[in-house]
Write the structure tokens for this entry.
Amino acid sequence: CFLGRSNHTVNSTALLDTIGRKVWRYYLNIYYYIKSNCIILNSVI
């Protein structure tokens, strides 16, 4: 059924969007963590 297929596509893109946001937030957290640690290291050195 075409309607079912298009609905499935919408669901999978929504799922990918959610996963993408979680991954993006995860990488941003790592980036800011490393950045703040570098600032601390620079001030120590």
About this structure: The chain has one helix and no strands. The chain has one domain: 1-45. The first helix runs from residue 2 to 44.
